[in-house]
């Protein structure tokens, strides 16, 4: 089951993608499409291959078969640096990914290293306007920031490159619900400006509330692709993250 996205609105497409670690394949002929300018949430049980989708898209895992397309262009086999610089795909992985000993400003400078210092310095104030908490801590050591501020800094650093697509893996880990709400709000703002977001998040119900669409994976295949609000209203929603999303819901009594 899949939502029908007109070809010109498809930002990301996986066509029959096989990818994995060593001899063990995690994505098993995965077909999926994510809409341009939308937040698409990847859900599914542990080990379904959600993070593997992001890593494959960012060129960290080799595509063994099939192809990956960005706005209709074949990007299969491209290196992470090219995906970032030439194709505008940014990746914010799980956990902490900052240079803790450096200041917030220095982390931003490093994020813009491929742009050159002049452009980076022009863009830093522009990006920081959307991240007031990060701006306040500009000259602090990155490791001194709270978990939420660090995650915001990672997103700010990715936004310096004005990516078309932001891949974000489990942004809520270790953050309080209020801070998570802040991070989610920020992602919403980014899509309002045309960025496409593909997110993996265990906090499924909160994430669905700010997502447009959701794709459920099981054993490296898409088993469902629906509007986020439709899923939220589904009384059997738990099956999506426990597995069994493809099993038809029991018919309501009298239906
Ligand atoms: N570096 C690695 N080397 C070998 N196997 C790996 C590696 N990373 C992940 N795997 C395995 O690949 C499978 C899919 O992992 P992936 O992280 O994509 O799952 P996921 O759907 O994101 O689930 P989770 O919610 O558990 O992170 C898992 O069985 C995992 O053990």
TrEMBL record:
One of its GO terms (biological process) is L-amino acid transport. GO terms for molecular function: ATP binding; ATP hydrolysis activity; branched-chain amino acid transmembrane transporter activity. Signal peptide: none annotated. The keyword Ubl conjugation does not apply. CDD domains: ABC_TM1139_LivF_branched. Gene3D superfamilies: P-loop containing nucleotide triphosphate hydrolases (3.40.50.300). Keywords: Amino-acid transport, ATP-binding, Cell membrane, Membrane, Nucleotide-binding, Transport. Residues 12-244 form the ABC transporter domain. Belongs to the ABC transporter superfamily. PANTHER family: ABC TRANSPORTER ATP-BINDING PROTEIN, HIGH-AFFINITY BRANCHED-CHAIN AMINO ACID TRANSPORT ATP-BINDING PROTEIN LIVF. This is ABC transporter ATP-binding protein.
């Amino acid at each position: 089951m899949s939502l029908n996205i007109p070809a010109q609105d498809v930002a990301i497409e996986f066509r029959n993608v096989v990818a994995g670690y060593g001899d063990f394949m995690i994505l098993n002929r995965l077909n999926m499409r994510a809409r341009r300018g939308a937040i698409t949430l990847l859900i599914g049980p542990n080990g379904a291959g959600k993070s593997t989708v992001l890593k494959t898209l960012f060129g960290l895992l080799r595509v063994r078969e099939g192809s990956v397309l960005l706005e209709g262009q074949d990007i299969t086999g491209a290196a992470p640096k090219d995906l970032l610089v030439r194709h505008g795909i940014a990746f914010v992985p799980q956990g902490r990914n900052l240079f803790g000993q450096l200041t917030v400003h220095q982390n931003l400078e490093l994020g813009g290293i491929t742009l050159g210092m002049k452009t980076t310095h022009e863009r830093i104030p522009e990006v920081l306007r959307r991240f007031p908490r990060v701006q306040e801590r500009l000259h602090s050591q990155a490791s001194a920031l709270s978990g939420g501020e660090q995650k915001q800094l990672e997103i700010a650093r990715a936004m310096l490159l004005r990516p078309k697509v932001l891949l974000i893996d489990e942004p809520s880990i270790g953050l309080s619900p209020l801070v998570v709400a802040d991070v989610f709000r920020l992602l919403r703002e980014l899509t309002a400006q045309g960025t496409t977001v593909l997110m993996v998040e265990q906090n499924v119900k909160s994430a669905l509330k700010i997502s447009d669409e959701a794709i459920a994976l099981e054993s490296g295949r898409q088993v469902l692709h629906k509007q986020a609000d439709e899923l939220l209203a589904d009384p059997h929603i738990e099956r999506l993250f426990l597995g069994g999303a493809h099993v038809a819901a029991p018919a309501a009594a009298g239906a």
